[in-house]
Design brief:
This protein is an alpha/beta fold. It has two domains: 242 residues, Type I PLP-dependent aspartate aminotransferase-like (Major domain) (Aspartate Aminotransferase, domain 2), CATH 3.40.640.10; 100 residues, Aspartate Aminotransferase, domain 1 (Alpha-Beta Complex). 35% of the residues lie in helices and 16% in strands. A seven-stranded mixed β-sheet has the order 2-10-9-8-5-3-4, sandwiched between helices. Helix 4 links the parallel strand 3 and strand 4. Helix 7 runs parallel beside helix 9. The chain binds pyridoxal-5'-phosphate (PLP).
């Protein structure tokens, strides 16, 4: 078999080799049923078992309290941009949004379809280089909820702790690119969501963790498929769910547990990111995008002094088996995405090349 490359993709991201091996086996025949995982009925015993085990593993990984529902829905994190306000925001109410990057911007843009939006922070004029402190956030009088994005995948910034939202107001978090990369106290959240393809699996399903009382907010008539309540009632099987992606989440949750859980994963993620940030800090050549106190452990964004040198660097990286590191068009430069499953040796390979490149071109 061909050797696998260091894949720095921002999503879909790297998967652990043992997870891929297991999936390969189970696609052919899962658990001795003589039927592959992608061919089992979503109402049958085999899939029943998988759903129950997947949810249990998810709760264990995230230490998710019993008064929260764990849902698997479709449409990506992008669909949560309308599902959240559709389910939680009445027309005459206001929701507060912390606009700290590209995806937070996409979320804030959709909410006015359903109610009023107040931008409690907007980092656009600072090119989204930092995460606001609590004193830089201006909440509205009585928001229905506060929406924020814990890790800004494109700009490479990350909240180090939760923003202090007003007492009693549900905190709604887009955790798409850092879920289960570190311990989180879900009791502080009303709702959190993440599509699976960055830290917990493959594209096709989105994990939603929602506090039970929010299921009954019900500010308007909605199609059944748009109601969290219906997904909760029907145990994420109102229609045919993406069986294989949900099964993959189960493998990933068990993989995280086998690594020692989110505490161990967090220590590893800290160490991995440090390998690359240390190069930036020691360099008079490389330019990091994020302010130092706001740096993401998941997506490291940086550039060379000129776009031509960026191009050259990406070419050299590819020649050494480091792929999909080109930055998003809004930031340019490079973005090294180093999610849970990305191996530490890949971070060393990148750091070595960065130092070497600076010596030759700096
Ligand atoms: C990738 C990403 C999204 C979009 O996810 P989709 O699954 O493509 O809808 C939203 N928010 C954040 C923070 C992301 O990183």
């Amino acid at each position: 078999m061909a050797e696998r490359k260091y894949n720095f993709s921002a999503g879909p991201g790297y998967l652990p080799e043992e997870v891929i091996e297991q999936a390969r086996h189970d696609l052919w025949d899962i658990r001795g049923t003589g039927i592959g995982i992608a061919e089992h009925s979503h109402r049958g015993k085999t899939y029943d078992d998988i759903v129950v085990e997947t949810e249990a593993a998810c709760r264990k990984v995230g230490n998710i309290p019993s008064n929260y529902k764990v849902l698997f829905v479709t449409g990506g994190s992008t669909s949560q941009n309308y599902m959240v306000p559709a389910n939680l925001l009445a027309q005459h109410e206001t929701a507060d949004y912390l606009v700290t990057g590209y995806w937070a911007e996409r979320s804030a843009e959709q909410a006015p379809l359903y109610g009023r939006v107040h931008r409690a922070f907007d980092g656009g004029k600072h090119n989204h280089t930092f995460i606001p402190s609590d004193s830089e956030i201006r909440y509205s009088e009585n928001p229905s909820y506060v929406h924020w994005c814990s890790n800004n995948t494109i700009y490479g910034t990350q909240f180090k702790k939760e923003p202090k939202v007003p007492e009693g107001v549900p905190s709604v978090c887009d955790m798409c690119s850092d879920i289960f990369s570190r311990p989180v106290d879900f009791k502080k959240y009303g709702l959190a969501y993440a599509s699976a393809q960055k830290n917990i699996g493959i594209a096709g399903t989105t994990l939603v963790v929602i506090r039970e009382d929010l299921l009954d907010r019900n500010p308007r008539e909605l199609p059944l498929m748009l109601q969290y309540r219906v997904h909760a009632r029907d145990e994420s099987r109102h229609n045919t769910p993406p069986v294989f992606p949900i099964y993959m989440c189960g493998l990933m949750f068990n993989w995280i547990l086998a690594q020692g859980g989110v505490e161990a994963i967090a220590r590893r993620n800290e160490a991995k990111a440090k390998i690359i940030y240390d190069v930036l800090d020691a360099s008079s050549f490389w330019i990091g995008h994020a302010r130092k106190d706001s740096r993401s452990l998941m997506n490291v964004t940086f550039r060379a002094p000129t776009p031509e040198l960026d191009e050259e660097f990406l070419k050299e990286a590819a020649a050494r088996g480091m792929e999909q590191m080109k930055g998003h068009r809004v930031t340019g430069g490079m973005r090294a995405s180093i999610y849970n499953a990305f191996p530490e040796r890949g971070c060393h390979a990148l750091a070595d090349l960065m130092r070497d490149f600076e010596r030759r071109k700096g």
